[in-house]
Input
Amino acid sequence: MIVLILAITSVIIIIANSIYAIPSLVAYSRIGSLGGVGYYASQPVPGVPPGLLVRVFLINGSVVEPVRAFIDVYANAPSGIVHVSMGYSQSLVIPFNNTNWRYAIGRWASLGIPFSDYETSMLIFITYMKGNESWILPLVIPYNVGWVIKNSRYIVVDTLINVNELRPNEVVSAMPGITSVNLQLPSNRSDYTTYNCNLNAPKPPPETTFKPEIACLGFNGSLPIAWATWDKDVIKNDSGLSIDLTIDFWGAIRWDAMATGYGDIGTSYSALENVFLGYSVVLSSQVTQSSPEYQVTQPGSLYWYYGGATWAIVNYTVWYVNSTMGTYHLGNVTVFEVLYVPPNDHYIGMVLDYGNGPVSLLYYLASRHYLECPAPSIVDYAAFIYTSTGQEYLYEYNGPVTNISIAYAITLGGLSAVYGLGPAQLGTTLTDLSLGSEGLGMPPPQASLSLTGVSLELFNITTGMNLYVSVINASAIYGLPAFGFILNATNFYGNPTTYTCKYGKVTQIG
Amino acid sequence: MAVRSLLWFYVGFVLVSFASSLWLLLSSVLTVMPIPLPYWFLYTPGNMVAAGIIVVALMLVLYTYLGVVLILNKMNRGFISMVMAFTLIIGIALLLAGLAIPALVILVIAYVMLIGTYAVLISVATTRASKALWGVATIILTLIPPILIGGGLAVIDYVKYMAIIEQATAIIASAIETWKLGVGGG
Output
């Protein structure tokens, strides 16, 4: 009889699990080595409202055990970050009806976009302290805004603090504010609004024994997608050169959050995109009567951008305040976040930047190694060189240059599966796809794949020209394969004295 | 023909099923509750795989026991379940060794032997009800591979529900046999 009861109970449980009467795992993704997030579909469990649950585990050797840590949670909103909740515990629960979270969701709702169109994310910082050392884990937890509205899903985050692998911060006794980083931007960037990313939710979080300070800079404006920059020597020496910059984005494009010292920590924003656009300019030393409209006569940049986007450099400073022991600075984490990009191609645009736009800003930040930000890597890509013996050669140093009858083309970017942004690739085989078909026969956007392709086409390369093409890879800043081309007439960008040459191909072209 | 010692196979089958579903219930509910839990108890893919391996290991012990009992009772069909258990272990070992193709071949044999084992269970079942339930389970087991191959991921939900029915019928059939052999046979 007992066996019969056990059997019937087993069957009931199995059926309950399959119809989501009890929590059933519908998706799970690992967050590097920092943990994982599980999404559970379920009827509401009595006494446990649906929402976010963060658990903290300590890994020390082979031991994995729950541990108390500071858990600090922020929600991304379209133009800023809202502090949602904090606690010092082994776990922290934030129901979907949390006032601050609802406030962030309200900001999304005010955009009037269907919720199913995008996913956003929560930022979670775990700070574990032991003795004079602290470990900070930055995590990005993607979620769909619709879940919060519909009060569905349990989102369970398991964070793993591996004290043997993660480098600790030193805990120093200090007063809050003294060592705050001075976030200075050049004052002539009038087309940028810099502001505090910390949106004030209706109810400020209650004072607790520790206080995270946020120094944050938000750029509410253009998010560069791809660009080509030329200097004054190119205008002078290579007059008549025509450049065409083409972008090709389709599928679910994901912008990843980049944390200093931790790299890519996860997706902070994603949107469905379907964009295939190209624009040409002629670089000319003088304006002629018959000059086409798109003739440019001064150094600058041509770039594609998302208008109305928000991206931020967020510096989190964590403090521990204790009435008897004083104030301790636990550490800093810097996160590069794309908070919002308008969906589809509604706000995409092409603009020339003559030293005051986002591309100039990017070079400025790169030159200053802003906040130890991952400096964009610059590759000596290819060069057209006129030799003293009267021949024109094409040197392909670090990637292929495709000759398409009247032009030379460089295509960068790649296909990536939606759940794993592959490393940005140089010189992929997408040339045929992006250049040959010109939109014909292009596969439709798929949920499972995304393509981010950027092409530079160079027309009117004539014998006698000297042109050096450097590629700037800003993927480490934007968390998305983002490339710029830099054209110089005398040497590669930065005047390097030695070149790396991994591709290594030389062709006489004239 | 009733084999008295098969009682313990059926008892074991029900107990292992009950233990695994109890783990499923506790783990899934407690995971979403804000209470301290050991990491191995969380309802995550890694822990589910670990639990699955334990369940499979226990089931293989039971099927081996089934085979031994049948052979001792002069029923050579007992070899079918022993071969199933043996090939499954070999298949998993090959899979872990990274030999995908031989592993697949061996696992296909193991699957066919599993269907055979179910057929054996029909033949030794003592009641019409349990015969029918094992029969349903056997038919589902036989149908799943062609449906999966034909329909691919589009039919995965149907296959999931079929597998649940298969599990449920097998558990209930075992419970009926336990009851019958325990009470009627005693």
Summary: Residues 176-183, 367-374, 417-447 of chain A have pLDDT under 50 and may be disordered. Chain A has two domains: 19-167, 223-307+348-508. Residues 411 and 430 of chain A are 7 Å apart (CA to CA).
